[in-house]
């Protein structure tokens, strides 16, 4: 019985959806690589996240195909976290990290006084996610620091690695 949350889809259309999703994923990867090479890291983050989501859609569709389900959840089209989580059920978790730093590498005054416990300077990691994608491309007001932010910190080499590993995972997925 199909619930209101699901749509009927044939096995052939599931297979087609996997192909379409992986092609779009590859286009996003190619675009991200071009942006990284031209030092547009914030924009590359957005495309990497789109690539991850399209890869996640392919994972989701393959799972449906493998379990003989001829339905998809309607939320597959709108739920970014569903696709993101599906992608990382296959992708190595280290591909989430887009920067890694100690607090000492940030400009003085970046964090408000007493932001961290005294003497505690953690290694901080930035991870890619549907919400990080938005922070990368849109200006926003940070309540904690009381400042406007535009873009996020990203490590060029880490982004290159993510692109390379995503490309490898897409190729492996096709086998």
Low-confidence stretches: none
| Number of E-type strands | 6
Mean pLDDT, all residues? 87
Helix/strand class:
alpha+beta
Just name the CATH architecture of the largest domain: Up-down Bundle
CATH uppermost class of the largest domain: Mainly Alpha
Order of helices and strands: EHHEHEEHEEH
Main pleated-sheet profile:
2 strands, antiparallel
In short, what is this structure?
This protein is of the alpha+beta class. 50% of the residues lie in helices and 13% in strands.
How would you characterize this protein structure?
With 175 residues, the protein is α+β, with helices and mostly antiparallel strands. The protein folds into 2 domains: 6-91 and 155-174, Methane Monooxygenase Hydroxylase, Chain G, domain 1, CATH 1.20.58; 97-149, no CATH class. 50% of the residues lie in helices and 13% in strands. It contains 5 helices and 6 strands. It has helices at residues 11-37, 41-66, 80-87, 130-137, 156-174, and strands at 6-8, 71-73, 97-102, 123-127, 140-142, 147-149. A two-stranded antiparallel ribbon has the order 1-2. A two-stranded antiparallel sheet has the order 3-4. A two-stranded antiparallel sheet has the order 5-6. Strand 5 (140-142) and strand 6 form a beta hairpin. 27% of the residues are buried. The mean pLDDT is 87.
